[in-house]
Amino acid sequence: MTGPHKERAVTHTRLDVLRLPLIGLLRRRWGRLALQIPLLAAAVLLVIDGFTGPQMAARNLATVAPWVHFRGFVVLVLLLAGNLFCMGCPFTLPRTLAKRLSIRGRRFPRRLRNKWVAIASLFLLFVTYEALDLWASPALTAWLIVAYFAASFVLEAVFTESAFCKYVCPLGTFNFVYSTISPTQIGIHDPEVCRACVGKECINGSYSPTPLVRLDDIPGGQCEVRHGPEGTPGCGTLLFAPQIESNLDCTMCLDCARACPHNNVGLFVRQPGRELLRPEAWPKRWDVSLLAISLAALGLVNAFGMVPPVYELQRALIKTLGIQSEWLMIGLIFGVGGLLLPFALALLAGALSRALARKKLSLRHTVAAFAPAFVPLGFGIWFAHYGFHFLIAPLTIIPVIQEFLGQPGDWAAFSSTADAVLIGLVQGAGLVLGFLWSLALANRTAARLYRRDAVPGLLPWALLLLALAFAAGYVFSLPMEMRGSLLMG
Ligand code: SF4
Ligand code: SF4
């Protein structure tokens, strides 16, 4: 353990899903592999088809699976269950091997132990996706998957903690932010057991160069604790189970549950978005606040990149600024629309909110207090976007698999799209419910911070949320490119 930890009395009387039959198998030593091996096999098949299959987006697993289906599943699973995709992430398999190699390695550089690199890698992924038309290129998508495995392995081999997951991975960062609305969270059963626990194995793991056995006196009796070279890793993202307030940074790997010698860690069902209501659950840091706000804006810009006005904007940029490079053009659109503008507007809203409510809270604390309110609306925007792509071609993965297996693809039976009204309803529901949830959170934050001056203090944030929701509604009302479907090619 790196220092004394305060053990807050976080008791859970709710359901621990790890104590249910079958799901409980996940906490076994190799339980996570039940999810990882199928996803690793899928990743390998994607890479094979990406390099050797037809270079036509709608007929190749490498493009259809990740860009049409996977993303739709991700948002649905985050909403209904939790961060199961990080739990089953195949990129962490070579990481686990690397972790064993790096057990005496260095920590990730202190200056980079924040979310700035993750914000930059999200930005880079979106720009690369658009500039290289990754959705249309099976081979490039396969290279991206290979690069992911390589980056994960190298970072985990060099540094002791799970640096790739915690500080770099754009997919994990997306999952971290939006798993804050999920209905499950890691927690503990009994704080007294944690107080008496000597080794804090949930965070420290149970590695030891030579085997050792210890007896812990915990409430209810003594417990034998074994450490050794084959020990279980502790939390790779350095979360301490008795103190966890939020799903941010939790990959749901369940290493903490496996490492705890007192069987005191659980995966509890909770009120969805519980931590968005709790001011102490989110760090008061610029990087975390701006991640939540900019991810919502990046969702809007990502969708904007697929509707006709983006081409008008590009023509205007060529005409007025003389920009010819597509990378520069897309970087400018994402940089301004997804990062600079939301950063600036968040600062402006924070400054106005403080002035109108006549409260001396610092700008950093003000922005941090309202940042969680951007999570539901941001999720609604991504839900509307990914839901559209999924519903446009919900079953096309079947003929693509048939063709991958050397059979004729039954496109006639499986290439129909969902009803346009249904797609519109799903998108509208995502946006409206996301906006209302965000507004309710902002209202609650304003009431907590400003009391009698809550209404003027809320106003700038409510307007910003409203503007974001209207802009998203406008973008989704326009005809959107049906990328990855046969209609688009
Ligand atoms: S190892 Fe288990 S008992 Fe010990 S501090 Fe962690 S969760 Fe609590
Ligand atoms: S708290 Fe840490 S060890 Fe436990 S599931 Fe989350 S990331 Fe894994």
For the largest beta sheet, what order do the strands appear in spatially?
A: 1-4
Compute the average pLDDT.
90
Structural class: mainly alpha
Low-confidence stretches: 1-12
Please count the helical segments. Answer: 20
Distance between the termini: 54 Å
Tell me the total number of β-strands.
4
Order of helices and strands: HHHHHHHHEHHEEHEHHHHHHHHH
The number of domains: 2
**Portion in strands:** under 5%
Largest sheet entry:
2 strands, antiparallel
Q: Into which percent range does the helicity of residues fall?
A: 55-70%
* Shape category: globular
Instruction: Report Rg.
Output: 23 Å
The hetero compounds bound to this protein are:
iron/sulfur cluster
Summary tags:
489 residues; two-stranded antiparallel sheet; binds iron/sulfur cluster; mainly alpha; disordered N terminus; two-stranded antiparallel ribbon
Report on the structure:
With 489 residues, this protein is mainly α. It folds into two domains: 32-182 and 277-477, no CATH class; 184-269, no CATH class. The protein has helices at residues 33-52, 61-80, 84-87, 92-101, 116-131, 138-158, 163-168, 170-178, 191-196, 201-204, 255-259, 286-304, 309-321, 326-357, 363-370, 374-392, 397-404, 411-414, 420-450, 454-477, and strands spanning 184-188, 212-218, 221-227, 265-269. It is globular and about 75 Å long. It binds iron/sulfur cluster (SF4) (2 copies). Residues 186, 235, 237, 239, 241, 244, 250-256 line the site of one iron/sulfur cluster.
